[in-house]
Amino acid sequence: MTKVDNYHCRRSVPIYAIITNQSSGMSSTTSSVTWTRCDVPKAILPSDPTNTTPSSEVTSNTPPDTHYTIYGPGELETYHHAKLRRSVRDAKLKVFYPGRWRHPSPRAAFRVSLFSSNAFELRSEEGRTTCQWSFRSNARILSSHLEWDRRGDTDDTGNTYEKDFVGDMAQDVPRELSVQTIRNERCYDYTLFLPFTSSPINCRPRIIVELDTRPKDDSAPKPKDDQTVSTDNDENESRLYPPPCISLQFPNSLEESANQLQLESWEWRYVNDNHEKEEMESEWCTIYQCWTSDYPFEKGGCDGLSPSFCRSSQKETSSANTTISAYAETTESFWVFPHQMTLCHVESLQPQAEIPLPEPTETDASCMECLYDFGKELLGKVKVTVTTIHDLVPLKCGISSVKLRVGETVAEAMNDDEDHFEQSTELCCLHFDCSRSCTSDVDCIQEKSLVFISAHLLAFRYARIIIDGFDKRTHQLLVECHSQRPRVPPMEGMFYFNTEKSSVAKQNCSDENLSLDDKIGRCSAYTLQLCMHHNFIVDGIKRDRLPWAGDLAVSIMANCYSFSDSESIRFTLAVLGRCGNDAMPRDDGGRENIDDEPQIAFMRESHVNGIVDFSLWYVISHWLYQRYFGDVAFLKQEWTVVTKRLSCLIKYCTEAKTGRLITNDDDWLFIDWSDNVKKTAALQILWWWALECGSLLVDTLILFADNNTSESIDFKDFHGLIQDAKSRLESCFVQDDIQLSYSRHAHIFGVLSGLNLRLVDNASSKDWWNPNPSDDQWRSLVKIRKLDQQSLDALLGDKLEQVGTPFMKHLECLAISRLGERSSALSKIRNYWGGMLRTGATTFYEAYAEKEMPDDVANFYSRPFARSLCHAWGSGPCALLPEMLLGLRPLADGWKLFLVDPLDECPENISASVRTKHGIIKVHLDPTMLRIFTPYGTTMVLMERRYGPGSHSFPRAKLLSTQTIHQWSKKYRGWFHHPTHIIPNNPLILGTPGFENIKMTDVPTVYQIPGDKKYYMSFVGFDGSCYQSFVAESSDLLSWTDIRFAMGCGEEGIDEGGVVLGAYLYECYDIQAPRVLKRVNGRFYSLYGAYSKKGGYEIDPGHQGLATSGDGLFWVREKNESILSIFGPGTVGTWEKDSIYQPFLLEHDGTYYNFYNAKQMPQWVEQIGLATSKNLREWTRHKDNPILCVETLCDSARSGGFDTQFCSDAKVFFDNELNHWVMFYFGVGKGGAHIMIAFSKDLLHWIRDTEPLYCAGDNPSGLDKSYAHKISILHSNDTWYMFYCAVGDAGRGIGLLTTPSH
């Protein structure tokens, strides 16, 4: 007898059954059945007394019927999860899988409410029915009743029913229904007979059906009351029953009428055998989603049932309260429920190569060893076939034993020490046949063979076969892998690099990176594909082959860009959310007083995966799923699970005053596999992120809820609970003890969560403001305002402990990208994931340290082969590469609004596709054009412009990426402030009386006069009535003296309210050139802002005029009418209908450009427009005004940007060094007015840097704590000088900022 290593002999078993039973319990013949998730529909039941046609009958002209199968929320997912845990246990994987995992209930009740335009009551006459309900189930009916929901109805005394009234209208007890049962081989077919007639009663009938999937004689241990199981000691694992379900067949063409009933809303609860009824009533869960298929029922016919139901002709009749039973004859047709679906695709793969091994010694001559390399990581079963090639040599006389060893590395495959086995290599004997003689070698190979297959799924690349008694002269060996993959293939067009289309790219220096990026993208997608197992996203295929919340967060993003398989995410979220759910406190009160001590013990066993931070990742993953997939129906289905977890964390695990999340010493806090990581701040930021995600999820549900309903009110109440916890937590981040404990991980979370931005918002709000420079809080707030820069410095530096896993490396690269350094993030991706490729990786690892040697990659947990070399959280580049290179990412849930922002250094040919619920987004960038397809229902944002559905093309030469903008703006950052105003709010005006009452100074503009080395600054003074323009002079740009009058108020109706000089015509507009005035026909020219009325500050409507000067110091009006106003010339847009403000004059290629800001009321929004002229007198408005709008694409984590209300007062110059135009302007948004910057290649299309160059309040003296705006910039002596209007404690005056040239 042949010996098989650790084998259990299964003779003559078809191989497809062995392969597919592991995952689904069904043979491969079921693979054509496809069930997909959908919203629960409203079924229609006939209620005409004369109509005996069932609800599922349709005419031959109608489309195929649709079937819907309904389970309890999360029951199907927990059933498959229980099967997965069992398979992991059987495969002897070395798994530590903590957590209280939900077990599917074999016994459950469904409650369905009926609705019609007519009301219905019970009839007392037996034998008369007007409605029937047919359905299919996998379970026995234990009971079926009719009850009434009388909420809103009144009783005999006039009281209103506020709760459910359950019972017969006459007897106040539920009424049992007549049931007709047909038992098929694979299911039960039921018909319930419902006795209704019309009656004007204000209540709705409800049907309750209790089902059980266990056979009647089941003697297995009953499930625990909490219906949960542990992994290590599970009494229920040996008797795993599927959850009860109900399948309905709906005709697609049946029309509604007044005489029909609807199955309107569904509810479910699990039933324990000893459960009290009163307790069950409070556990009904609304069902929002089910499974749909158009696969046909069995063909056959019966009276009163669907013609597709098969039944025998014999049946029993009974009274209305007795079940009618019938049993079907065996047919060749079959029925497959969703829990019986085949969840994987199996394909046969051959080894890529055989690795030579040393020749056996003479003592081992009869033992043959072969080592095969399959070329890449696989998840599947190894099949070994040994055949004889000579008719005279019986196979059974030669082979004595067969052994299998596999490994992700050669060293693991060569290991024979069972203590170091990470998975079972048990073999099963499938086939042994040498019964008849053969006449050809081919026949011998087919008939005389031993076939072995691994009993369990294996994760491996290398397979070693050891056969005793194998003789190469008479025996032949065939090895193959039956590889399992998810049924969802990679999305067409998901791979980003079309290198074969770019001959230029192959010749340039970026070819190496292009090829590397392509390999990284494909390898990460393959990693995720292998980890999409059994309809879950599991962490690793060798260890642990089970879902974990940390892997899921990364996998959601990667999945979106590669497979777009939302079902695997839903399965995983549903199971994770129910982990430990029963261990949470059942009362809703929480601590009676916020000052009470946290009750952490209540939550100790409730954490997802048994890990504190994984409970937080679970909530964050729900938001990520909505952002990348936009599945509100699933969120609604799972919302009670999400709220329970968040509510209990808030009520039982937070510190009273600070809102911090408290943990015990016994709690497992993961954060990352990295030594010496400070986890305190990282945990609190992650906690804030979970709260923020919970708040955003509530906002999503509120959008889809009816206002003023109880559901909407519950959402708003929960939103208030979260906001209170967040506000308390935010205050603690001002404290130095948390800031000083920031690890690399804390910085990552701070950026990605939006906490950095939120704290900047808070630091810019009046509630937090404190201008006292000696105050500790002030110093903390100033530091907070620089958090993003601090985080960027920390993430790009080496001072902090490095991350330890691809999980955190993914988040680190994403954070660096969001901080504007996509090129740096790309470099990290290429070094890190490229480093794994250089070690020989075909999938990405669980953990990796850069420059790790190939021989070291398998060692982990102090075990030589414990590291998972195919891990879901290693698949991050699937999402990172399209976002880094093309800037492709969602800005709203489900990609309703999305961004495209290609890097200027992007490869010449690159493509990406994303499948959304609206359609497929397609982006292709070639050497000359960017082409984008935007599906209907989505909006694309490119260079701050929005584009609707359709195909769009853009010349590549005109594109500007935010990465480039970020780099260009660096040379204008790092400002040092002058401590006081250089021109105060009440300056002394020389030579001319009447200007003693000036209260404010504003709008500085520095210039020089040809042939004069002095610097001159014009500015305006306001005396409470009107504006006047003045000029001061300086020799060093620091001390300004000799202030004199330059231009004053003019005629009524034109510029009586004052003039604002400053839009001068310069000789050169290079950013580093001196600001020397240009003479035209012997005169200097300037545009100016004007107000037609006296008596106040900026009395509308403002307009613009033209002034000239002979000496550059004293100016007069050139034209006695406005050159630009709200009345013309040309068409005046809505955005500028209320006032025209300060101009800036620029000359380029014979054309004059007038950049001006204008106002729209009542919102008081100011934006920048453009007009052009050939002679300075006649102006034409640009057709695409405004050319720079207020920011509307603010991140969801921030209350607003820095220029959400104003984009004003443009100053435009040319950067010869980098060949682009620069616009300095001021924005008004959060925290006051700030100095901003934007860039352009053509003066027409502008893109801003969303982060200010200088923020109001950056001067600790309070000089500009309210506004920092209206700048004049020039370069001198290797220093940038920026003069600006500083408004703060010292009033409105002229301030100065300087920075060295970079």
UniProtKB/TrEMBL annotation:
Q: Name the Gene3D superfamilies for this protein.
A: 1.50.10.10, Glycosyl hydrolase domain, family 43, Maltose phosphorylase, domain 3
Name the residue ranges with Basic and acidic residues bias. Answer: 212-227
Biased composition of type Polar residues is found at 48-64
**UniProt-annotated stretches for the region Disordered:** 44-66, 212-242
Q: Extract the InterPro entries matched here.
A: 6-hairpin_glycosidase_sf, 6hp_glycosidase-like_sf, Glyco_hydro_beta-prop_sf
Per its UniProt entry, which superkingdom is the organism in? Eukaryota
Q: What is this protein called?
A: Alpha-L-rhamnosidase
